[in-house]
Amino acid sequence: MENVCQCTDNDDRQSNAILFNILSQDNDKSSHNNLNYNLMPHRCNCEMRRTVCLKSPADICQEASGVLVKTIHFMKNLPAFNQLPPNDQLSLLQSCWAPLFILGLAQEGMNFDVIDTPADSMLKRILLNSQESSETEREQPTLAGVNKLKSCLKKFWSLDLSPKEYAYLKGIMIFNPDVKDLKAAIFVEGLQQEAQHALREVVQPLHPGDQGRFARILLAASMLKTITPNLITELFFRPVIGQADLLDFLVDMLFCR
To answer: How far apart are CA 152 and CA 173, in angstroms?
Structure first.
């Protein structure tokens, strides 16, 4: 059964009623005195809609920034990646930075806690949310998204990958021939196949009695694409970069020599 928040429509009707009663120019004094004060905004307890933020943003954002720097340096130090046309490098960067970052979190064993995002009062929302700001409002991290990220990290921790396994898995994620408009798609596909072969060659001697480990690693890697770059950006980096575009920073880091 589809997991649908049952309070969405009710929540919207309550907010609309409050805004209508406050902003309607046709209401007279008596109508303002008869406002239904039971129609107060409430925080949705549904996991799909609960917005969250880091419990300790200063420390975690600093650690996350360090992981991101290591991620970009890993890409920069791959000779095969540097041989690709610049536009292909940009396309691959946009496609893989979030999965690579999650692998970095897993490799560093980085854990974090979240709390509910403090809710603004209705009056503050009316006074401060201009039309311009509402148009640029970003989707906030949800508890459901964070739980999915944590499940992904736990999966990799349970596999207990070696540094070489992480390295070759990152290569598989970087060299994705399915990214659109790659000029060197055939070359990229060959690099991905080489990374897969290298990963298999590393897994076998490390775990000779575990014939299914290679498949489990690839299955865990498929979970990485279910975590949106927006979740990563808003949770770990929005407190640091403000309104800036994180991808601009990544491009600068990648091409800064």
So the answer is: 15
Q: Which of 33, 34, 42 is nearest to 13 (CA)?
A: 42
The per-residue pLDDT of the chain, averaged, comes to: 83
Distance CA 257, CA 253 (A): 8
Residue 130 CB: number of other CB atoms within 10 A? 8
Q: Assess contact for 199 and 165: CB atoms under 8 A.
A: yes
In the block, which residue shows the tokens 């049952």?
A: 6
| Structure token pair of residue 131 | 């039309």
SS3 142: strand
For residue 74, the SS3 value is: helix
What is the mean predicted confidence (pLDDT) over 234-250? 95
How far apart, in whole angstroms, are the C-alpha atoms of residue 184 and residue 192? 12
Number of residues assigned to the chain: 257
Residue 189, Cβ density class (10 Å: 0-12 exposed, 13-18 middle, ≥19 buried) = middle
Give the 3-state secondary structure of 6-69.
Answer: CCHHHHHHHHHHHHHHHHCCCCCHHHHHCCCCCCCCCCCCCCCCCEEEECCHHHHHHHHHHHHH
* Nearest CA among 77, 39, 60 for reference residue 167: 77
Q: What pLDDT digit, counting tens, does each position of 138-193 carry? A: 789 999 999 999 999 999 999 999 999 999 999 999 999 999 999 999 999 999 99
SS3 78: coil
- Residue 156: its H or E element: helix 143-159
Which of helix, strand or coil describes residue 196?
A: helix
